[in-house]
Write a structure and sequence with these properties.
This protein has 189 residues and is an all-alpha fold. The protein is globular, with a radius of gyration of 18 Å.
Length: 189
């Protein structure tokens, strides 16, 4: 009787580490900022409040985290995704750049920060839809879940602060992004 497993080990695309480092940079900068900011409220603040250099002692941690995450996403897009999903790669690179804009043009820049933040969340959705069309990935549909908390926020139904819609938006794209790191040309993720 053959007891050798028929499961194949998971292989990752070259450059996939950049995505995992991007996720680590993003969520560790958010986590550290939360721990060091007792004033923060998920329902009353925006995550960008951490980046306000006039009012937040964790602004350098948070803003550098966004800048690094954006850079790592650009590297992942160009070094890993470009060969298998070129349209998604370019869109993800623009998403990474828009994340850098959010970190660089923090809340101290007033309405400019609002516009680059909206660009970021729009790019997350657009990039997910491009991946859906390009790779026929059902996981990319999860990004549509992020629309619900934004609608509730703008209708002032549930959320007073932007932190939860922002965080949900970031989580909604993780499944397809993580699956895109696998080096499995025949799989539809």
């Amino acid at each position: 009787m053959n007891t050798v497993s028929t499961m194949h080990p998971m292989h990752f695309k070259p450059g996939a580490a950049y995505f995992f480092l991007a996720a680590l940079a993003l969520y560790s900068s958010i986590g550290i900022s939360i721990v060091l900011s007792p004033w923060f409220s998920w329902t009353g603040n925006a995550l960008s409040d951490f980046g306000n250099v006039s009012h937040s002692s964790v602004a350098p941690i948070f803003n550098v985290g966004l800048l690094a995450t954006g850079f790592l996403l650009i590297l992942y897009a160009m070094l890993s995704l470009k060969g298998t999903a070129p349209r998604t790669a370019w869109s993800l690179a623009l998403t990474g750049f828009s994340l850098q804009l959010v970190g660089g043009l923090n809340e101290n820049y007033g309405s400019l920060h609002f516009y680059v933040s909206m660009l970021l969340f729009l790019m997350l959705l657009v990039t997910s839809l491009i991946y859906l069309l390009e790779k026929r990935s059902k996981l990319a549909l999860l990004a549509l879940v992020a629309v619900i908390p934004w609608v509730l926020y703008f209708q002032q139904i549930f959320f007073q602060g932007e932190a939860l819609p922002e965080f949900i938006s970031s989580l909604a794209v993780l499944p397809w992004l993580a699956s895109s790191t696998r080096d499995n040309p025949g799989a539809k993720h």
